[in-house]
Specification:
Helix content is 32%, strand content 0%. With 131 residues, the protein is an all-alpha fold. The longest helix has 27 residues. The protein is rod-shaped.
Length: 131
């Protein structure tokens, strides 16, 4: 074999000196630490797990209960869609209106717009500006 290098000789001597400092008493089994049984990290992990579980349960309950049949139904329309709108009678020049009351003098009944025709809306104005 070859002769060891000076670095290897120094390293072996240092390790040998360090090994001589350790005796049988220091090689005994290590005693477990004394103090609180729960560490801060363990408490944080447990609290975090409980918080996540509660949040998941709340989300699941919200999703399950939001689709229940007890939720409010939409408001009914203002009038029953099955009934027809009241008919308005407009007297024509050929027929005379029924005379059950006192006839009025030269006054024509006001004409009402048809409830089925949509109101006239003006066309939208252009909002684009030219430069």
């Amino acid at each position: 074999m070859s002769t060891p290098s000076p670095i290897e000789e120094r390293l072996r001597a240092a390790l040998d000196a360090r090994a001589r400092l350790i005796d049988a008493h220091e090689l005994s089994p290590y005693r477990p630490p004394t103090g609180p049984a729960w560490g801060r990290r363990r408490v944080r992990r447990v609290v975090s797990a409980v918080a996540v579980t509660v949040a998941a349960a709340a989300a699941a309950a919200f999703l399950l209960l939001s689709g229940s049949p007890e939720r409010p139904h939409p408001a009914p329309p203002a009038r029953d869609p099955r009934t027809s709108p009241p008919a308005t009678s407009v007297p024509s020049s050929d027929t005379a209106p029924p005379t059950t009351s006192v006839p009025s003098s030269n006054t024509a009944p006001p004409t009402m717009p048809s409830p089925t025709s949509p109101p006239a809306t003006p066309p939208p104005a252009s909002t684009a500006t030219h430069r």
